[in-house]
Design a protein that fits this description.
disordered C terminus, seven-stranded mixed beta sheet, about 30% strand, six-stranded mixed beta sheet, Nitrilase/N-carbamoyl-D-aminoacid amidohydrolase, 17 strands, about 290 residues, alpha/beta, globular
Length: about 290
């Protein structure tokens, strides 16, 4: 199955309405160029000091999801709402939640980011998700007309066990909407995305934010599409843009026939991993990405 995909690379700020309007215009541009699956980056609707996240959070379904659902239905396309801050009733913290919208406008699946990070950059800028957001508790694979799509978000990329589980649950495409920082992006972004694709013989679609946020954090850009062999099919720049590529999902079967590594997975090792209590390592700063 050939699929015209568009990854939207943008710079979000603290004006949520302005951000959503900008994102919707970029979705329209992507559709005009032929895209049938459009992906937005992590926290595309709001980037500001973490102390403001709770007030900016909203329900899903809610105002932002409704606008994107209307767009998906209008054009008959899939839209990945990279992530937004989701309000959690009776909870002090919000969730960083990604959701996939069907061509009919329905939300097919939503995923709350499981791995949260805290980082202090060399320039002293601090980014602390742990303090303000709740970690998700379950992996999510959406059943779509494009095939099974696994959902992940940004810092999840550093945890290969999640991607292996998404693959064993049937994923042929895994989405990784991100706000990956320039701090480690030059060294780690591409190698991690290619590794997750090669290990699991899946397509990886990773739209990333770009530019410098009002908080001082600079995002890496370089949105990426990687095929199941680890070949980079498309890579963005450091500017706002819509990155277009056509993928052929039959490539997944071709690669898996060529190299049958997934058939050699050791379930006993995975079960052992589930029983191991992680040791605390004396690393500083924790959770760099």
């Amino acid at each position: 199955m050939k699929l015209n995909v568009a990854l939207i690379q943008l710079q979000a700020g603290a004006d949520k309405e302005k951000n959503v309007e900008h994102a919707c215009r970029m979705v329209e541009d992507a559709v005009s160029a032929g895209a049938r699956f459009v992906l937005l980056p992590e926290v595309f609707s709001f980037v500001a000091d973490a102390s403001l996240w709770r007030d900016a959070a909203e329900d899903i379904p809610g105002p932002t999801s409704s606008r994107l659902s209307a767009l998906a239905k209008k054009h008959g396309i899939h839209i990945l709402a990279g992530s937004i801050l989701e309000r959690r009733p009776n909870r002090r913290k919000c969730s960083n939640t990604s959701f996939l919208i069907a061509p009919e406008g329905d939300i097919l699946a939503s995923y709350r980011k499981m791995h949260l990070f805290t980082v202090t950059q060399p320039d002293g800028v601090v980014f602390d998700e742990v303090r303000y957001t709740l970690a998700g508790t379950r992996p999510v694979v959406a059943r779509t007309s494009m095939g099974p799509v696994g959902l992940a978000v940004c810092y999840d990329l550093r945890f290969p066990e999640l991607f292996r589980l998404l693959t064993l649950l049937g994923s042929r495409i895994i989405t990784v909407p991100s706000a990956f920082t320039a701090f480690t992006g030059k060294a780690h972004w591409k190698v991690l995305l290619r590794s997750r694709a090669v290990e699991n013989q899946v397509f990886i679609l990773a739209p990333n934010q770009t530019g410098r946020a009002v908080t001082g954090v600079r995002f890496h850009g370089h949105s990426l599409v990687v095929d199941p062999w680890g070949t980079v099919l498309a890579e963005g720049s450091e500017d706002e843009e819509v990155l277009h590529v056509t993928i052929d999902t039959a490539r997944v079967d071709e690669v898996r026939r060529r190299l049958g590594a997934l058939g050699h997975v050791r379930p006993d090792l995975l079960r052992r991993l589930a029983r191991v209590r992680p040791k605390k390592h004396d690393l500083s700063p924790p959770g760099e990405r």
